[in-house]
Design brief:
Strand content: 5-15%
Number of helices: 10
Number of strands: 9
Strand order of the largest sheet: 3-2-1-4-6-7-9
CATH superfamily: NAD(P)-binding Rossmann-like Domain
CATH topology: Rossmann fold
Structural class: alpha/beta
Largest sheet: 7 strands, parallel
Length: 284
């Protein structure tokens, strides 16, 4: 069954204060969904809610919370279910990023990536999806992973730990939830022009170093607008696509990695070596 449209659907969007989450909330509102929104940024969340309502959209529930706090997510779910009953669409968009080589990454970086980008979505899934199953009305689950959940990008080990993890969760739930009419959609964007991309923490390097500035500038130049990702998400639900790409380069890169394993490994090794040389020159 699944969802073909968001019209009158009860839709949860996490990370709704900014970036992809905000753009997706606005797009879902424009598609006549009834929204449930959350973000750790209370001020940004209030702005999103105000903008949606000013445009005639519907926000049924909005609450600022930290998705890494399971009890907070559980209480939020209880409130939502009391007011709205089961949801139709759950979108895990909230996330954060840290880059760095293994010798520079600290335990806190690994833990933060897993807590926010993997356990956070799991808390949401655990709190909302079983109610959808029991309701028997079908629906959709959207999990935002990353190109770093498909490809071995340099300096992304901690980030990929979580993004590959949510990819695995999604692949299993894709089949487990199909019998209940709930479709699963894994969003795998590359660079997206959000505050997160422009301020991403790169452990062990000086962001002001000209070489690092050129690297981050080049990365940002390939970034797509968050509205483009939001549109891809809505199309992915409409057309029941499991992998939801926001740009051709990631689609091609993943296809190439699967079809041409040896060249892929060669390029990844060369890329990693290039990044390591860059790191060495910034420390010299």
């Amino acid at each position: 069954m699944g969802r073909k449209t968001l019209r009158d659907a009860k839709v949860l969007v996490t990370g709704a204060a900014s970036g992809i989450g905000r753009a997706t909330a606005l797009a879902a509102a424009a598609a006549a969904a009834e929204l449930v929104l959350t973000d750790i940024d209370a001020v940004g969340l209030d702005t999103t809610v105000a903008d949606i309502r000013a445009a005639g959209g519907r926000v049924a529930v909005a609450e600022a919370l930290d998705i890494t706090d399971y009890e907070a997510v559980r209480r939020f779910a209880e409130r939502v279910h009391t007011e709205l009953d089961s949801l139709d669409v759950v979108m895990n968009v909230a996330g954060t990023s840290v880059w760095g080589t293994v010798e520079n990454l600290e335990h806190k970086h690994w833990r933060r990536m897993v807590e926010v980008n993997l356990m956070g979505p799991i808390h949401v899934i655990e709190s909302f999806v079983p109610r959808m199953v029991r309701a028997g009305k079908g629906g959709a689950l959207v999990n935002v992973s990353s190109a770093a959940g498909l490809l071995a990008l340099p300096w992304h080990a901690a980030y990929s730990a979580a993004k590959f993890g949510i990819r695995g969760v999604s692949e299993v739930l894709r089949f487990d939830l199909a019998q209940h009419g709930i479709t699963v959609h894994l969003v795998v964007p590359g660079a997206v022009d959000t505050p997160l991309v422009r301020s991403v923490e790169i452990v062990g390097v000086d962001r002001a170093d000209p070489k690092i500035e050129r690297l981050t500038t080049a990365f940002t130049q390939h970034a797509v607008a968050p509205e483009q990702v939001a549109s891809a998400i809505l199309r992915g639900i409409e057309h029941n696509r499991f992998l939801v790409y926001s740009s051709f380069d990631i689609r091609f890169g993943y296809w190439w990695a699967r079809k041409f394993a040896f060249p892929y490994e060669f390029v990844m090794r060369r890329s990693s070596a290039r990044f390591s040389r860059l790191l060495a020159t910034t420390h010299s």
